[in-house]
Amino acid sequence: MSVLDTFRLDGKTAVVSGCGRGLGQGIALALAEAGADVYGVGQAPRADKTAELIAGTGRRFEYLSVDLISQEPVARIMEGALKMSGRVDILVNNAGIIRRNDSVDFTEADWDDVVNLNLKTLFFLSQAAARRFIKQGSGGKIINIASLLSFQGGIRVPSYTAAKGGVRTLTMLMANEWARYRINANAIAPGYMATDNTEALRADKDRSAAILDRIPAGRWGTPEDVAGAAVFLASEASAYINGYTLAVDGGWLAR
Length: 255
Prior knowledge:
The protein is an alpha/beta fold. It has helices at 22-33, 48-55, 73-85, 108-136, 158-178, 199-203, 205-214, 223-234; strands at 13-17, 37-42, 61-65, 90-93, 140-145, 183-190, 245-248.
């Protein structure tokens, strides 16, 4: 097998949360292009564009619309993926939300919603995937989407900072406990990305200029920038990488 072959995902099935747009859509498409079938999950009623893009790769795609702030859908997600292809090999925990307010005014509801989706659901989906991987006996890949705020404190986003800091260390715990089952748990920390979530930020000329001045690469990132990292961490090419959070940030953390 050549080194390029180790990046292939033929015969694999990936569960990708938050796949309807932005980074999740880019990751889902990249995994399909590498050969994986994709079971998409999200809160939007439909994911037609993602379905259209993946159809062009010749891979299967099914989508389940659920409220990921709740833990109720976790079992249904795994059941749906198994019904589609009979196995699960890759989990990408991409779904997340952010709420902004001064910390002295931050509400319990905004704390709970963000932590429940960004950290609690991430854990229990990972737990369900790990149980499936262990039962299948062939290992598996878990990719959590962290943040630059897994390394930094941030401003006016206390629940998001807490959750994303937790994602980084929880990923390390997963590696500690599950590596013996040939389960690789890693995370990607995207930098400032040109997605719908940053549209208002990019429209603010002064704020956008300040951000770009801090990024050594001199540009906003794109879903395509994250896609390659996701395929790498989902593939056998990363078989000896475990518990690591990879920053895809154009050099932001290096400054």
